[in-house]
């Protein structure tokens, strides 16, 4: 398929091709490090809960500092912030390598690096997202986001596979060193971009209260608030499939670790398929978002009825594909239908919702699976997501009928939906 086709149209742009290639290298390294960190923590502690705590350490700064990062992204030039954040991540990966090679017997230094990495992501992540929006014209941004989902899924599969091959030879420290080097691929890609081909976003003026202004914008923009609330429910009760797939494999399906691995592979394939499906769409509208949300919520509620590993895996495939479409549509509409000078803070808000979803949903679905069984957890989560989707659709329909004179940012997001 040519680069001129609708599915790959973002790749027509020189700067985005560099960005996509660097992103693939960086994500591959990141997932190599994820496997290495999880295995190192598990080796030191023998506790899966300790592995979960390292994930919390990485997510917590986004909840606390995300809007600070968004305010910085809206005010500062994106390019230097991206380079500084990549250098910081490389330094932290090198620090992890030093910790691993030193043969530490304490998990505390690893938690400290995880927390520091979370802070860097919280402060630099919005600038990364804003910069990603500047390497393509606005019309091609949804397509670039969808291709980014494919790259993320491909990098995850490649990174985990390479880590599994290299780990016996290099140890965890070797994986961390490889990841440190991948951040320089991003820096090189940014350095080789053509400044004349950037599609620069208007910057916000430096003024006090930028964070309050960002929060006020979200809270006073009804359609955005509804979309983020729906994303929170879908992401928490309808997206933490690593929990429910593990519970189903160990419980009703009696498939064990092998079954869980198969389901994880099927889910990854579904995310790649979802990326291609999303990239082929000429426009990611609110209506499409709601249709996809309803479909995957219904499938989730029904997936708890599946009698075998094969049928459950069959349900996971379209759910994973639909989840990518929903996530990309949420990000695309949130960014494109918000003012340029507010873009970083909106990206931060979307990231904060994602972090909260992972933290809240994993615990909630885990408790439901333990207390009532994984099938009941899937039913309950699916029904809750169906109700949230219907409520969101009704609310957005009411907002769309409001007179244009109402002081809300609504029409750009809903017209032609």
From TrEMBL:
Keywords noted in UniProt: Cell membrane, Membrane, Transmembrane, Transmembrane helix, Transport
The keyword Calcium belongs to this UniProt entry's keyword annotation: no
CDD domains found in the cross-reference section: MFS_MefA_like (cd06173)
InterPro entries, sorted: MFS_trans_sf, TM_effector
Subcellular location: Cell membrane
Main location: membrane
Entry's Gene Ontology cellular component terms: plasma membrane
Transmembrane segments: 21-42, 48-69, 81-102, 108-129, 175-196, 217-237, 257-277, 284-302, 308-326, 346-368, 380-400
One Pfam family recorded for the sequence: MFS_3
Coiled coil: none
Membrane topology, from the record: Multi-pass membrane protein
The protein, known as: MFS transporter
